[in-house]
């Protein structure tokens, strides 16, 4: 039954996607990379939502809620602020220039060198870090939620990871490389609908179980009365998302992720016009407000059920809950939904990497006179190459306890510098290209120093038989959560229950998110100073390319205001500021 329901839903998504996209233009750059610039609001919203969601978020954010409660909803709710900014400020300007990639826009604003440097940063981040980790965390998450050994007959943990990685990698590559952006976006929308249904079903069955069969309302009442501290929207200073960080690093990570990250915004650049783009972005914002229901509440329920079971760790809680409450006939459907979530993140990153390479490297550097066919072919060849590499690397990550924290650190390296350059480029028209390139390089170096260069030592009390020190690394991407990092101990310096470990600027001296906020402000100041000392001769004036109708949606501003008020309302309803004292 599990295999049948899995195969049925997967085939259904593939069949509907094929029917809807079989006549699409796959022979031009706009058709292949931007869906022919004819994506509608609903498709954009669904694709944005599911591209953001993958197993590391579904499992990990619920795991964070298991530990810290409702305060981790910041990774969903604060995203709405960034999506409103995208709809009202960034998207009109991106569409006005008619660009395909964010680096291409920076090339229009500054120069070809800035375009090339930003493209290389994105490509290295996507191909060497993001794609393998999506595959690995997806495989690990699926193996935790379902009896994959029983379903496949593969008993070896490494064999299960390899099987899942290859399955997802091949399916995702077919969607991304043969179908182009619109195929990716349509399949994302269908899988997104399945994920919402599946996530809500988990909540329903879990609350019904907690309520002793008395229904959802009885379940909510039981959990809230037993664990009132879990329903506080305000994060304490010792939690993974302290309240003060909402206004520094957390907000900045969201702003980059939803307004500047090529993997995310490429589907908005394929909007048929600004109206549809704004509708899609704001609709995604409305759906993000529902995120805590299926990404946070299950973790709180799991805490209620398993808090006294030492064998269940936070990141295991959601998988255990799924196995305990989901009826067997729905298990295959939920596995298919989770595979769809992994596929969405993977094929979106792969499609974006191909776009960046074809437009920024192949046509921008090697063959400036390349035909449309050659540009698309170069993207497909590059895509298959990095797909194979990512499938080879992903299983090798097995055993890395700190893999998610590692991903977040890598994201922080390029999120903040690129976002700073985009913001200054839009708001300060006389800042020269040398300022942008300086900020990119300086930002990468400063954040790397804060993350990886020791600035001292600290003593940590541990058990005698613990070979490494587990510490909480408050790293996070937009729409994601914290994870445990592992810092090797200096075993030669161990004395009794005390070990000496390296002390880092970010995380140890200052909270990671505050550190990123300081770096962002410093980069902005650096660029403005360079612009004041050596401004570019002519003030940059953005020209309308004519590729897209940029007439705004008349309800965009009212809808944005309503969404912002809902964010404030949600926080106010569940706020208890006593945790800050």
Structure explained in plain terms:
This protein is mainly alpha-helical and 581 residues long. It has a single domain (2-17, 27-407, 552-574), classed as Sodium/glucose cotransporter (Up-down Bundle), CATH 1.20.1730. It is 69% helix and 6% strand. It contains 24 helices and 5 strands. The chain has helices spanning 2-21, 29-34, 41-52, 55-68, 74-77, 79-97, 102-109, 112-145, 148-152, 157-210, 216-226, 249-259, 262-269, 274-288, 291-295, 297-306, 314-325, 328-366, 372-396, 403-427, 433-452, 505-509, 512-533, 556-573, and strands at residues 454-461, 468-473, 483-488, 490-495, 498-504. A 3-stranded antiparallel beta sheet has the order 1-5-4. It has a two-stranded antiparallel sheet with strand order 2-3. Helix 6 runs antiparallel to helix 14 (274-288) and helix 10 packs across helix 18. It is globular, with a radius of gyration of 23 Å. The model is unreliable at 463-495 (pLDDT under 50).
Query: Overall pLDDT, averaged?
Result: 81
Number of strands: 5
What would you report as the Rg, rounded to the nearest angstrom? 23 Å
What is the count of helical runs? 24
- Measured between the Cα atoms of the first and last residue, the distance is 53 Å
Helix content: 55-70%
Low-confidence stretches: 463-495
> Which superfamily, in CATH terms, is the homologous superfamily?
Sodium/glucose cotransporter
TL;DR?
This protein is mainly alpha-helical.
Q: Layout of helices and strands, plus pairs?
A:
Elements lengths: L1 H20 L7 H6 L6 H12 L2 H14 L5 H4 L1 H19 L4 H8 L2 H34 L2 H5 L4 H54 L5 H11 L22 H11 L2 H8 L4 H15 L2 H5 L1 H10 L7 H12 L2 H39 L5 H25 L6 H25 L5 H20 L1 E8 L6 E6 L9 E6 L1 E6 L2 E7 H5 L2 H22 L22 H18 L8
Helix pairs in contact: 1-10, 1-18, 3-10, 3-13, 3-14, 3-18, 4-16, 4-17, 6-12, 6-14, 6-24, 7-8, 8-10, 8-17, 8-18, 8-19, 8-20, 8-21, 10-11, 10-16, 10-17, 10-18, 10-19, 12-20, 13-18, 14-24, 16-17, 18-19, 20-21, 20-23, 21-23
């Amino acid at each position: 039954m599990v295999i049948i329901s899995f195969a049925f839903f997967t085939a259904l998504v593939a069949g509907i996607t094929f029917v809807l996209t079989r006549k699409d233009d796959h022979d031009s750059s706009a058709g292949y990379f931007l869906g022919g610039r004819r994506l509608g609001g609903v498709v954009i919203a669904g694709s944005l939502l599911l591209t953001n969601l993958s197993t590391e978020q579904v499992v990990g954010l619920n795991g964070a809620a298991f530990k810290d409660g409702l305060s981790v909803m910041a990774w969903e709710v604060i995203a709405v602020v960034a999506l409103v900014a995208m709809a009202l400020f960034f998207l009109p300007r991106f569409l006005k220039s008619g660009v395909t990639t964010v680096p291409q826009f920076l090339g229009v604003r500054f120069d070809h060198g800035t375009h090339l440097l930003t493209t290389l940063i994105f490509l290295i981040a996507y191909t060497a870090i993001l794609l393998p980790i999506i595959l690995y965390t997806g495989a690990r998450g699926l193996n935790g939620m379902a009896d994959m050994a029983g379903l496949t007959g593969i008993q070896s943990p490494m064999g299960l990871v390899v099987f899942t990685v290859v399955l997802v990698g091949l399916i995702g590559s077919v969607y991304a490389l043969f179908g182009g952006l619109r195929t990716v976006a349509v399949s994302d929308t269908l899988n997104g609908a399945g994920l919402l249904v599946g996530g809500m079903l988990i909540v329903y069955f879990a609350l019904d179980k907690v309520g002793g069969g008395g229904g959802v309302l009885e379940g909510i009442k039981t959990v809230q009365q037993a664990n009132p501290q879990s329903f506080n929207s305000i994060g304490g200073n010792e939690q993974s998302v302290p309240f003060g960080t909402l206004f520094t690093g957390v907000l900045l990570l969201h702003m980059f992720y939803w307004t500047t990250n090529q993997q995310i915004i490429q589907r908005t650049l394929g909007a048929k016009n600004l109206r549809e783009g704004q509708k899609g972005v704001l609709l995604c914002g409305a759906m993000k407000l529902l995120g805590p229901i299926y990404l946070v509440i299950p973790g709180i329920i799991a805490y209620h059920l398993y808090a006294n079971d030492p064998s269940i760790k936070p990141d295991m809680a959601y998988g255990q809950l799924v196995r305990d409450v989901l009826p067997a006939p729905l298990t295959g459907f939920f596995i298919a939904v989770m595979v769809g979530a992994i596929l969405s993140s993977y094929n979106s990153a792969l499609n974006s990497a191909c776009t960046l390479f074809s437009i920024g490297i192949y046509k921008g550097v090697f063959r400036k006179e390349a035909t449309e066919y050659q540009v698309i072919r170069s993207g497909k060849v590059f895509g298959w190459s990095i797909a194979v590499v990512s499938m080879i690397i992903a299983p090798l990550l097995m055993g890395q306890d700190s893999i998610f924290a590692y991903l977040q650190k890598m994201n922080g390296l390029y999120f903040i510098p690129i976002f700073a350059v985009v913001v200054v480029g839009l708001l300060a028209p006389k800042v020269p290209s040398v300022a942008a390139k300086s900020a990119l390089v300086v930002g990468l170096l400063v954040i790397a120093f804060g993350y990886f260069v020791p600035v001292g030592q600290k003593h940590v009390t541990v058990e005698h038989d613990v070979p490494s020190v587990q510490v909480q690394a408050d790293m996070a991407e937009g729409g994601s959560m914290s994870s445990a990092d592992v810092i090797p101990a200096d075993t030669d310096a161990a004395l009794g229950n005390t070990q000496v470990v390296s002390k880092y600027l970010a995380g140890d001296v200052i909270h990671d998110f505050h550190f990123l906020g300081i770096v962002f402000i410093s980069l902005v100041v650096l660029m403005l100073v360079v612009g004041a000392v050596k401004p570019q001769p002519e003030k940059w004036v953005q020209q309308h390319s004519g590729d897209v109708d940029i007439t705004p949606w008349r309800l965009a501003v009212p809808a944005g205001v309503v969404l912002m008020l809902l964010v404030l309302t949600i926080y106010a309803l569940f706020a208890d500021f006593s945790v800050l004292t």
